[in-house]
Amino acid sequence: MGEPRGRDVAARVVALWTLAIGFGASVLVGLSPTSWLQARLRYACEFEAEEWVCDGNAALLAAGASSLVLSTLALGSIALIVRATWDRVRLRAERFGWIALIAVLPTLILCGLLLLDAATHEPAGVELDDSRLAMWIESAMIPALATAVAGVLAGSGLRMRARGRPRRVAFVTILPAFALLLVAAVISFLGTLPTGIVAASAIGAGWYLAAAAWPGAAKQTVGDVDPDRSRSTS
Fold it and tell me: Which of the residue ranges 9-18, 191-200, 206-215 would you say has the lowest mean pLDDT?
């Protein structure tokens, strides 16, 4: 009993530290979206005399505030889910899918707000090259789609691992999810890097916790069995 208990406690500590490190890293790179917002999406810019006039301070503030607020809300929610599931991981496997979906919400919300801003502040009579909507499609749509797919893949992988599927099976979905988060950050010129770090840390925390509940050599204990397997054998 002592070894499984110690393993569970260690997994909880690692999961919480992973969330904390992810938050800290996100704060450190919180201003990285500034160039993306201004140069690629023309956030806080006005089209005057056939050229863009931009407010650098507004873009800087938006980058820092969006990263901090969205990351805090997402990681706070995920920490509550982690705390609510770590005692009975096997019986609450479905909740692990929510960890991944909430993890990618900051990026999706940010891209959605930028789309709304572009639509409501679209200059009249501009060419396609100067259209803010066209800029959003070019620079933000693909990162948003990649992040959404990453959330779906990671959610599937976390649920599978929490249900006791082999590590290699679940990891098939986790690795592509991490790769998609990286692709989104690269395509957005690091615009989604802070929120992508948050997503990666949340997925990692969920993985540590789910994996600890199903060690390779451990036997299932009475009262803590996988509901799906118990139903299938009954």
Answer: 206-215
Q: Which residues contact 134 (CB under 8 A, 6 or more apart)?
A: 128
Contact 81, 209 (CB under 8 A): no
**Coil vs helix vs strand at 44:** coil
Q: Does 224 score more than 60 pLDDT? A: no
**Three-state DSSP class for residue 45:** strand
Angstrom distances, CA of residue 170 to CA of 126, 155, 189 = 48, 10, 30
Whole-number Å distance between alpha carbons of 67 and 24: 11
Tokens of 16: 């919480």
Residues 120-149, buried b or exposed e (16+ Cβ, 10 A)?
A: eeeeeeeeeebbbeebbeebbeebbebbbb
Instruction: Say if residues 157 and 144 touch (Cβ distance below 8 Å).
Output: no
How far from each other are the two terminal CA atoms of the chain, in whole angstroms? 27
Nearest to 196 by CA among 186, 205, 208: 186
HEC letters along 96-146: HHHHHHHHHHHHHHHHHHHHHHHHHCCCCCCCHHHCHHHHHHHHHHHHHHH
